[in-house]
Model the fold of this input.
Amino acid sequence: MKNMFAKTKLFATLMAVIFLASTATAQDLSDAAIKTALNEAHDKYKNNKDGKNADYIKELARVDSKIFGIAIVTADGKVYTVGDIDSKVSIQSISKAFVMAQIIEEQGHQAIQDKIGVDATGLKFNSIVAVEEHRGKEINPLVNPGAIAATSLVAGVDSTAKWKSILAKQSEFAGRQLSLDMPVYISEAGDNLRNQAIAHLLLAYGRMYFDPAQATDIYTKQCAIAVNAKDLATMAATLANGGVNPITKKMVVSSETVMYTLPVMATAGLYDDSGIWLYNSGLPAKSGVGGGIVAVVPGKFGIAAIAPPLDEAGNSVKAQLAIKYIVEKLGVNPYKITPKK
Ligand code: GLU
Done:
């Protein structure tokens, strides 16, 4: 009897070990697993002091470099947050992914390919050489030249109408009315000669679709939209949910638009380190020099982190570390395939 009891106990222990071994690497998106992953990531990286705020836009150097917030919004609308959730940063380049989606929605995906391009340039995000090399072709909407071209394509009779339309669309993605961080806009608008030059060079090559000075101004406003981590995670979650905002339930763009947006995020979302990012996370993502990063786990959730200090490539140090940690912990790298037995 005693022997049988011991055997049963041994069997139960073995089963528990096998179960734990199989779940340790499997995907676990339970409430508890998501909360644990977020808390662990925040704890692990909150004291990381690497990187520094962008300062080529003067106002960004003044942002509190200790801000560190992380959020996940699932495709069925659950919200999980940790850390500094009320602080906002300017959206900067993250807006580009959503303007790209807006253009696809308005003009079809072929327009992006034909009028801008969808190739990674392999050069810096504000490279003039990238424009010069192919006479304004073979760039993409996630680097400055392609982004200013994309902004110039937004429907609207004049500059005000185009700006209103962009702000409305970014707000639909975020699920609330967003607004402009005026000091950031003014600071960058007074100092964006390089972007003005890019826009004029594109015009010279027939690849700018509105007045270049006004397109650059709208683009500068678009980059100065203020967002918190939850806003960004909701924007990413709308992509993760095939274009329907999982909180407001509004269809913001079609699932086909999402299908064409995510690949460019995968190949060109993190500046010169896009390859390194994709290699390590498997996820389409977009970063901005304000310190935010969004990443999309298709069909599952959007994740975002904000933390202003950036690495050499211009990507938030802590946001990258936190998102990578969470992706790994939750087992959501889409290239992680469990072989069929
Ligand atoms: N407004 C910024 C610029 O044009 C955006 C840069 C970024 O976030 O990559 O330089």
